[in-house]
């Protein structure tokens, strides 16, 4: 995750990969102080690299800039337009994949000059395209996945369910609050493959434990 943070300029990736790194490091650091010290050294190195690069410093500072940063302002503009769209089509939405069509025809603000292709928010995008019915289905699916993994983690305390929970919350809900990750074709495929790997590793570990017991 640290290499990923250093290797790209996605502010959402920096923020939520950092959150995951801290959560996972705390868990394993409580059991092994050496792990925690190594993690702190890596974090300090990454921070040092960022601090020495004006490009990265400027990029970090832009996260909280809502007055002149075009990327942030564009997200606020499409959010406002999307809420108007939801208000006009509350139950079933404008139709899957039709957000951009309705946006350009009726809802794009004159001050939004980036011509953005989506609302940059999973919940808002799903509601705009599929209405409240689609939002209920979306939340039901994702909450069920989280609930199952949380229950399994509390029962067996395995790292794979922990990774699923942190990864799912970060990509779908946290990162998904500033970008439309659910509609990122390549991104969601990679995400689901990683989640499937975690499930497979968990099943393999459970199988090994059963063999040892027998």
Task: Determine the fraction of residues in helical runs and give it as a percent range.
Answer: over 70%
What overall geometry do the principal axes of the alpha carbons give? flat
Number of strands: 0
- The whole-number mean of residue pLDDT values reads 84
How large is the count of helical segments? 9
What percentage of amino acids are in beta strands? under 5%
Distance from N terminus to C terminus (CA atoms, Å) equals: 38 Å
The helix-strand sequence is: HHHHHHHHH
Q: Major beta sheet, specifics?
A: none
Taking pLDDT < 50 over at least 5 consecutive residues as the criterion, the unreliable ranges are none
What's a concise summary of this model?
The chain is mainly α and 214 residues long.
Describe the structure.
By secondary structure, this protein is mostly helical. Helix content is 76%, strand content 0%. The protein has 9 helices and no strands. α7 packs antiparallel against α8. The mean pLDDT is 84.
Task: Based on the model shown, name its key terms.
single chain; 214 residues; mainly alpha; flat
List the helices and strands and how they pair.
Elements: H1 2-7, H2 11-31, H3 33-51, H4 54-61, H5 70-88, H6 99-107, H7 122-156, H8 159-174, H9 185-213
């Amino acid at each position: 995750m640290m290499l990923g943070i250093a290797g790209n300029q996605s502010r959402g990736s920096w923020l939520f990969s950092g959150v995951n790194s801290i959560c996972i490091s705390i868990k394993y650091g409580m059991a092994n102080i050496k792990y925690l010290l190594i993690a702190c050294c890596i974090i300090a190195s990454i921070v040092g690299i960022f601090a020495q690069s004006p490009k990265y410093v400027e990029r970090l500072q832009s996260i909280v800039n809502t007055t002149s940063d075009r990327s942030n302002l564009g997200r606020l503009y499409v959010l406002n337009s999307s809420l108007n769209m939801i208000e006009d089509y509350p139950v079933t939405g404008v139709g899957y994949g039709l957000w951009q069509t309705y946006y350009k025809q009726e809802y794009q603000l004159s001050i939004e000059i980036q011509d953005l292709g989506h609302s940059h928010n999973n919940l808002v995008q799903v509601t705009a395209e599929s209405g409240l019915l689609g939002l209920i289905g979306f939340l039901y699916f994702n909450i069920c996945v989280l609930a199952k993994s949380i229950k399994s983690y509390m029962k067996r305390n395995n790292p794979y369910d922990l990774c699923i929970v942190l990864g799912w919350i970060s990509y779908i809900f946290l990162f998904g609050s500033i970008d439309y990750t659910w509609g990122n074709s390549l991104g969601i495929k990679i995400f689901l493959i990683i989640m499937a790997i975690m499930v497979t590793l968990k099943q393999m570990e459970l199988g090994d434990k059963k063999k040892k017991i027998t």
